[in-house]
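Hey, can you fold this one?
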Amino acid sequence: MEDSLGGLELDLAGVDFCDCSGLNALLRLRHQARERGKGFVLLPTSPAVEMLLSLTSALPLFRTEPAEPGDTPAANDAPAAHPAHRDGSTEPTTPT
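Sure. Predicted structure:
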């Protein structure tokens, strides 16, 4: 993360299982990125990751799409009152 200009983007689309250990790792990475003024974005997440983030109310803490050119990491990493999901909705997701 030290050498990146903008921050870290993780593609979690292939993750079949994620528990509290995975969530803690994501939260630590997010914290480290914020301390360094870097962005931290979760690219397409799998249903398992999406469910974990939703059930633990951690979804609003993470950007779930890549930053647009010209966006600043510090502004983009701030939690929003009503975060948008990848599909543009702001409604909470529910497990199916």
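Helices lie at 20-35, 47-55, 73-76. Let me know if you want another pass with a different chain boundary.
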